[in-house]
What we know:
19-stranded mixed beta sheet; 26 strands
Amino acid sequence: MQAKELLDKYKAGNCTDAEKAIVETWYLKFSKEGAELASSDLEAATDRIWDRLPIHETAEMPVKKTVLWPRIATAAAVLMVAGIALYLFSNNNAAHKLADLSTEENYGIKKPILPGGNKAVLTLADGQQITLDEAGNGKLAEQSGITITKTKDGQLVYTVSAALKSNTVKTAMNTIATPKGGQYQINLPDGTKVWLNAASSLRYPTAFTGENREVSLTGEAYFEVAKANPAQSFKVSTSTQTVEVLGTHFNINAYTDEPSTKTTLLEGAVKVWSKERADRSLILKPGQQAAWTGNQFLVNYDKEDEAVAWKNGVFKFEDANLESVMRSVARWYDLDVTYEGALPARQFSGEIDRNSNLSQVLDILSFFKVHFRVNGKQIIVTP
């Protein structure tokens, strides 16, 4: 198939998934040579790039492994995530810009569904609630010698008075909770930094004055624990396990709708033990992940990037099934997911920018013969 024939087929919407990948890979190679070319230069560049593509001789390409994008389409998927307009040829070979590749109408979306952002509610010890994304910057509250401040970059910071540091003031418990479609960063009174993912909550004291620094987590959070008094350990409790550290960086995924609770260590050392089985515990080293499945710990390796990708603004999947992918999408875009029909047993690998609109994410997932339609706050997935 010749280049012009394939481009015409693409514009008409008749390409196979593999052919789409070819065209979009061509676009990225072309864009590197410059999009501002005269018509004759544009045609010459097209021929030159097309000849260099190792895939132009065969339009139908078997996909051996189902990933978020085949190898040749990696850049094309990134193109779709970024929402970059695609340059194609008109009948006279002049370049013209098409509209954004992601069209909400394809999925029944009446208006764009935007990604999540910094949203959370802080509940003070007296029951007062502060919606952090609506609150102004500066001092938010003061309780028993603790000053709570919202910084200009949206972080929540606790400052402990000198009197409280001397253990002369009794502390209380606060809770910060993010909704679906929300995330937030908090600096705890000891200097520990916590990033909360969507649909998560953290309960903690307004100051750490005892032998241990203890907090409770639901959902998912990334911790950078301050190296305080070595004798004062830091403990994170979830519904199924407890993690104890002295000073380290780690991520805990404890969503109740996930098949396992995962603790991933990036730096330092942590001890993880089950609340259900007191005899089941282990000590993690950097690069290890403990997955509690209900009756035992499984240790995975090299999962750090995948575990903390959400904190860095990315969905990252490694051999994830469709249900796992959609749970992450649903939390971030504040949606519910239902399934119709017999869905293919496929695994997904790859990255997607969490700043993408929902339609852009669905565009990528649709590459693999999974179809979506959106009805209000619900995504229906079909084969």
